[in-house]
């Protein structure tokens, strides 16, 4: 399956810094067999869409749960499509644990986004406390169920073609404390197995499961070698064009390991 790397710029940047980042991204060399996506803050999406190479697709960092209307401060999926977005990141730990979005709300957003033809980067991952209590798999499976379980129509294979699962252990996000390749691989295998048992063997074998949490230019190659790590969702290191390119190009380590 094709390697997938997303850069989540989170709530960072100014018109000027984003212009520099776009110019850097336009000049780096990216391996051809990788899907590359960046997620700027909403207000800069248009600027990025108009200046970034078409080689890189645009994602939003969030979307409203349904059709737009009287929802102050929200951005609808229809508006994201209108402005050229192809993806939406949903269920990110910062939205779960800082903003307070719950499984049900996130699951409904995913269903609506997919129904409108956009792809979903569906984030899951456990807190440090949950890992220490041995609940990592339970937490991830519960979050997977919310993305998939209540919505029988989502079991259709075409919908799953537009889903990338991002495993992001919360304790590794923005902390500099990356999961070991073995820790990440273990969870990716478990999530793939969950898909096999709860959706289908076909979906399990073709759905990208990417890792996020302190990925950088120095650790990406080792992580990429793991069989079930199909790419990355990158925060801090995606704000530096050349380092982000190194992470995208970690696909070459995967090819060597295969
Ligand atoms: O969406 C990206 C993740 O939250 C990872 O962020 P990070 O690479 O800064 O740890």
Automatic annotation (TrEMBL):
Pathway the protein contributes to: Carbohydrate biosynthesis
GO-annotated cellular components: cytosol
Gene3D superfamilies hit by this protein: Aldolase class I
Entry GO MF terms: triose-phosphate isomerase activity
Sorted UniProt keywords: Isomerase
Stored HAMAP family: TIM_B
Name under which the protein is recorded: Triosephosphate isomerase
Organism: Rhododendron simsii
């Amino acid at each position: 399956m094709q390697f997938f790397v997303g850069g989540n710029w989170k709530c960072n940047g100014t018109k000027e810094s984003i212009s520099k980042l776009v110019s850097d991204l336009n000049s780096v060399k990216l391996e051809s067999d990788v899907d590359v996506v960046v997620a700027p803050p909403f207000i800069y999406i248009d600027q990025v869409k108009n200046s970034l190479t078409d080689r890189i697709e645009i994602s939003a960092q969030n979307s409203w749960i349904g059709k737009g209307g009287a929802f102050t401060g929200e951005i609808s999926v229809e508006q994201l499509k209108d402005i050229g977005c192809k993806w939406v990141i949903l269920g990110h730990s910062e939205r779960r644990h800082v903003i307070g979005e719950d499984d049900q709300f996130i699951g409904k957003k995913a269903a609506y986004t997919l129904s409108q033809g956009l792809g979903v980067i569906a984030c899951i991952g456990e807190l440090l406390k949950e890992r220490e209590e041995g609940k990592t798999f339970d937490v991830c499976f519960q979050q997977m169920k919310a993305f998939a379980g209540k919505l029988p129509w989502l079991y259709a294979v075409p919908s799953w073609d537009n889903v990338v699962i991002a495993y992001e252990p919360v304790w590794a996000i923005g902390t500099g404390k990356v999961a070991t390749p073995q820790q990440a691989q273990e969870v990716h295998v478990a999530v793939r197995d969950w898909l096999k048992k709860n959706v289908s063997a076909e979906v399990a074998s073709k759905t990208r499961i990417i890792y996020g949490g302190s990925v950088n230019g120095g650790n990406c190659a080792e992580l990429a070698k793991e069989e079930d790590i199909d790419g990355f969702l990158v925060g801090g290191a995606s704000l530096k064009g050349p380092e982000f390119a190194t992470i995208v190009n970690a696909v070459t380590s995967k090819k060597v390991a295969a």
